[in-house]
């Protein structure tokens, strides 16, 4: 999963609200930031009458840890060059399997007991000002401080996350600072291009004009569904497009984003995989029926501040459920709603409470595939005699101990994990410790 640094972004909002402070600082030409996050997550006992290869199992405790450096420089005017070396370790519950809306976005699809090194991001961002009013830019992770034109064109090229540019949300997009569940952090049906760690190579362009932003991007898919290696040269690719509108309601900021994606590569239709297995008498294997085709989807993503301390968010999304998901997770349609409340009202201005409700669903073709014993990206109990929507509730309390360190208590209730009414409900609890500078 893609990780961002929300506390750094909050620092940017603070500087934007205090321009006199920000204007005293010279534009940055070089910066180093860092973060470290530890998550321990457990699930208790629940109904589990049978187990498949991709099932969530009861009574387990897993942990993940990651340490990241954000190193940036300004090689010329308007340009920023960033690299994000990272050390990762640990496993998600059931090796990050068993729930389509997986409960920890700090858990990658690749788990290892020993720490290992990855260069997660390495990209160049070029900003072209279009004149007119300017705004202050905070110096935070993956963003050099200074100023920029409000109206501008931004090009980003290299290795980064699709979610760094698309489907963002100030209340639900950072598993290091807010919600942990995959289908809250991002739109669950947004099958964004990524390797098993959540990053891709490609190019994104953004046009900012007044209250509007238009975004588009071209990214490499992984070489095989849910794979560790990315394509080179866009042999299999994703095209993304998003339009965002920012507004004020009763003087409070909010925004709406509408996005679409188009994946082009070697995929299988679920019914083709079932038909081939029936004709040959073999196991269900979508790799045998993959051919070049297109899978599309879209989403709507909104946020709205209601008071100085309370904000709401919502997402809905849908994708072509007749074709196997490729790089994210087994969700064909999704809806979420939630809120975030700061602790200012009880004297803890840096603390936050969050609550989200999510419903994830799959198509009839997808259901038939899982019922016949097919395996998905994350789910597959070997059979699915009684399918139902995956319903998830997540709540967290993020306690700011001091400026650079926070501790979060997180709880999730997951009904019908893997769309299986025979399993669960599962109650998942987590402790997260996050430090940043």
Describe the structure.
It is a single chain. This protein is mainly beta and 437 residues long. It starts with 5 loop residues before the first helix and ends with a strand. The longest helix is centred in the first third of the chain and has 12 residues. Helix 4 runs parallel beside helix 5. Strand 5 and strand 6 form a beta hairpin. The chain has a single domain, classed as Porin, CATH 2.40.160.180. About 5% of the residues have low confidence. The protein contains 5 helices and 18 strands.
Helix content: under 10%
CATH architecture term:
Beta Barrel
Tally of separate domains = 1
Could you give the count of β-strands?
18
Keywords:
437 residues; mainly beta; Porin; 16-stranded antiparallel barrel; two-stranded antiparallel sheet; 5 helices; 9% helix; globular
């Amino acid at each position: 999963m893609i990780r961002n640094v929300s506390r750094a972004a909050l620092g940017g909002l603070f500087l934007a609200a205090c321009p006199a402070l920000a204007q005293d600082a010279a534009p940055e030409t070089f910066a180093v930031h860092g973060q470290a996050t530890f998550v321990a997550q457990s699930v208790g006992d629940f109904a589990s009458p049978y187990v498949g290869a991709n099932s969530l199992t009861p009574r387990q405790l897993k942990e993940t840890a990651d340490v990241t450096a954000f190193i940036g420089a300004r090689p010329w005017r308007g340009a920023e060059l960033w690299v994000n070396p990272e050390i990762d370790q640990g496993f998600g519950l059931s090796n990050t399997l068993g729930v389509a809306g997986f409960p920890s976005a700090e858990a990658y699809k690749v788990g290892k007991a020993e720490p290992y090194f990855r260069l997660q991001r390495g990209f160049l961002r070029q900003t072209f000002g279009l004149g007119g009013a300017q705004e202050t830019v905070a110096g935070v992770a993956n963003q050099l401080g200074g100023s920029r034109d409000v109206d501008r064109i931004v090009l980003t090229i290299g290795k980064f996350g699709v979610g760094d540019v698309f489907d963002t949300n100030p209340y639900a997009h950072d598993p290091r600072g807010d919600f942990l569940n995959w289908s809250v952090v991002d739109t669950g049906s947004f099958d964004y291009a990524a390797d098993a760690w959540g990053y891709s190579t490609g190019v994104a362009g953004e046009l900012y004009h007044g209250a509007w932003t238009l975004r588009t991007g071209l990214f490499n898919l992984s070489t095989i569904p849910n794979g560790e290696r990315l394509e080179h040269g866009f042999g299999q690719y994703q095209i993304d497009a998003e339009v965002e509108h920012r507004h004020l309601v009763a003087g409070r900021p909010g925004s709406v984003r509408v996005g679409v994606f188009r994946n082009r590569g070697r995929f299988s239709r679920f019914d083709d995989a079932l038909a081939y297995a029936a004709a040959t008498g073999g196991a269900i294997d979508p790799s045998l029926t993959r051919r070049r085709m297109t899978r599309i989807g879209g989403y709507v993503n909104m946020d709205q501040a209601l008071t100085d301390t309370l904000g709401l968010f919502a997402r809905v999304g849908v994708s072509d459920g007749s074709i196997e998901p490729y790089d994210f997770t087994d969700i064909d349609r999704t809806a979420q709603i939630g809120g975030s409340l700061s602790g200012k009202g009880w004297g803890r201005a840096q603390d936050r409470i969050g609550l989200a409700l999510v419903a994830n669903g799959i198509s009839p073709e997808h259901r038939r595939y899982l019922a016949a014993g097919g395996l998905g990206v994350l789910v597959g109990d070997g059979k699915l005699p009684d399918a139902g929507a995956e319903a998830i509730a997540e709540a967290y309390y993020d306690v700011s101990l001091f400026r650079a360190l926070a501790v979060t208590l997180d709880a999730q209730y997951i009904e019908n994990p893997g769309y299986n009414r025979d399993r669960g409900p599962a109650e998942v609890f987590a402790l997260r410790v996050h430090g940043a500078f």
